[in-house]
Amino acid sequence: MTEFENINFEEILDEGLGIIAEEINFSDFDTKESDESQNLFPILPVRNMVMFPKVVIPITAGREKSKKLLEEAQRENKFIGIISQKNPNEENPTEKDLYAIGTLAKIIKIIKLPEGNITAITRGVQRFKIKRMVSQEPYFVAEITKQKDSQPKDKEEFSALMDNIKDLAEKIINIDPNIPNAAQFALKNIDGQEDLLNFVSANGNYTSDKKQRLLEEKTLIGRAKTLYELMHDDFRHLELKNQIHQKTSKDLDKQQREYFLNQQIKTIQDELGGGAESDADEFKKKAEKIKWSAEVENHFQKELQRLQRQHPNSPDYNVQRNYLDFFTDLPWEKYSKDHFDLKKAEKLLDKEHFGLEDIKKRILEHIAVLKLKNDMKSPILCLVGPPGVGKTSLGKSIADALGRKYVRVSLGGLHDESEIRGHRKTYIGAMAGRILQSIKKSGTSNPVIVLDEIDKIGQGIHGDPSSALLEVLDPEQNSNFYDNFLEMGYDLSKVMFIATANSLSSVQRPLLDRMEIISIAGYTLEEKIEIAKRHLIKKQLQENGLDAKSLKLGNPELKHIIDAHTSESGVRTLEKRIAGVARWVALQLAMENDFDPKISVEKVDEILGVPRPKTLAEITDVPGVVTGLAWTSVGGDILFIESILSKGKGGLTMTGNLGNVMKESATIALEFIKAHYEELGISEEDIEKKNIHVHVPEGATPKDGPSAGIAMLTSMVSSYKNKKVKSHLAMTGEITLRGKVLPVGGIKEKLLAATRAGIKEVILCEANRKDVEEIKKDYLKNLKVNYVSNMSEVIEIALK
């Protein structure tokens, strides 16, 4: 027994081995299988192991019964029976919890462990079967029947099978990193085939029930075949594991340095609360507070899982993170409460906007419809008018009146369809379109969005943005507006869209059909004075650090600024002129100069410069000069049409940067004169032997349209007859070859321009009478309107 005294089992146990076995040279020991004088054998139940003959295995005992059994058996030098439990979790097994077949063993040495357990080094001797259980206290004692292994009949087959088992065992040891190197040494030093069979059976990586099946095999050839099948399955499993490991290792070898660095970064991020998991947790927390549909929830979960599968340092990770950040920031199904107090809304509109009575009435009607329907699927408003008349600020006032968030989207110069619909998130720098960005900015799904300058949308190589707006502004479609970045529909049906434009000529017809057009003309002189007193002067005093006592502008001074220093439909230039006066006052105060806070008309001209000349009468005080009325993108305006005769052959020359339509009007006018020269009192000689030249001043400005037709004809007749046109008369209308006068548009803007220019009398087509009647009479005071149907009436009224 001295050989076992030198074995350091503590060291072996420290290596983490649960079961240790090795071939021992028992030449110095008693070789008999068991003591024939021993009739009763203590039975030791063991868990998660099976004892085989000729195998040495350490058994650690923790149960009091087991410790007592081992100590008494060693003291009395008895053989013990080692049997496996059927259920390893059973702490106090009974006879029925034990297998019937086990192995007799001899205790070689007992080692007491510090925690109170003991480890017994045991050697298997022979298989046995329980015949009868004699007692269970203080431990199991039984009568047994010894089982002998049947020797193989075909020695050659058994020998070949054992060679295969040994070779396969060596292969398994080589590819399984969990088997210690000592196993290879032990395997090579086992001589007997039966010993090798039992050694491999005891130490194979199989479950206890499979090992029990091996132990219960009566023949060595049957045990060897069963063992070989188990080993073959184990080997295939290990090979598959190694293939996966090698493939993974190969991938790691390519990016080994990056991998370990990324692992370090991930660890640091985890310590600091960053990384993919923290991002995912952050999005989950945000999502818990959002109310959305099942469809949106499913889409979010799918995209979140995609984020979790990506590495935080990959480019796609940031793309996905930005997407989820935007996705969770959108106000899904979050709406502000509407305030349908029409009296309050009316008071607010009156406070913020002076004049524009018809427009404010239309807006109140619109709000009233929304109140009654409680449904935003109503026509989208489009405010059309010259610059500076308050279109954008009206949108802000509507938002305030409804108690909604206000967002302004500038569409001027937009030429990329992706600005409306967004970019696909796979592109670098991809982002959502302007519409969804505005929704996110507002924080609610029902803001008032002002689409500013919708008439100035461009069209480039990247699509047509105005076509993309067709879906946005269609109440029947925008309940599921698809943004390329969001990759799913978003409900815009509760959003109130208000578009603004200076002109509708460049707006697509389908887009116009989706909007309710509200025209906003310019302001009258009185309205501009009132706006200046209520809003503009106060604003400029505040912006220039002045108080009310520092600057005083009365009605005469404001009237002079408007008449002599501005020429516009709105009030932007007026505000600039008032700002100029306010800056002059600020300069005097800063330099501590003496000045009179009440600014006079003369002082206004000194501050703002030379006033605009009022020489209308002088300009038209010669034959051939007529004042026409025109409509531009900045409102109404007047223009002069000049004509002069020269010797020639009756030709026509036109200058002044005229468009094709305007040139055609001049040609029609001349042909009408040639056809009716007798009725008009023009000599045939002048028609045939004199050329006529028609010019429209301000040649750098392009001019076009049919509305100058009657003015051109009047100018030509005035030159041919050498008669002057009334000095304070203006006209607008289209002509035909038969001398009929046709109606034109922009009447309100044109008449306001006429009053600003000091015109006293205008000539319009009879069909435009309804347009004039829609204009407030206050706008047209001191202005006489003549309605005509043909050119003879025009000539009769116009020429002196």
From TrEMBL:
What's any GO biological process attached to this entry?
A: cellular response to heat
What Gene Ontology terms describe where this protein resides (cellular component)?
cytoplasm
What Pfam families does the entry give? AAA (PF00004), Lon_C (PF05362), Lon_lid (PF22667), LON_substr_bdg (PF02190)
List the molecular function annotations (GO) for this entry: ATP binding; ATP hydrolysis activity; ATP-dependent peptidase activity; sequence-specific DNA binding; serine-type endopeptidase activity
- Lon N-terminal domain residues: 41-235
Q: Where is the Lon proteolytic domain?
A: 620-800
Instruction: Give the reactions, separated by semicolons, that this protein catalyses.
Output: Hydrolysis of proteins in presence of ATP
> Any idea which positions bind ATP?
385-392
Induction of expression = By heat shock.
Q: What EC identifiers does the entry list?
A: 3.4.21.53
Can you state the subunit structure given in the record?
Homohexamer. Organized in a ring with a central cavity.
**Function, as annotated:** ATP-dependent serine protease that mediates the selective degradation of mutant and abnormal proteins as well as certain short-lived regulatory proteins. Required for cellular homeostasis and for survival from DNA damage and developmental changes induced by stress. Degrades polypeptides processively to yield small peptide fragments that are 5 to 10 amino acids long. Binds to DNA in a double-stranded, site-specific manner.
Q: Which protein is depicted? A: Lon protease
What is the species of this protein? Epilithonimonas hungarica
- The gene is lon
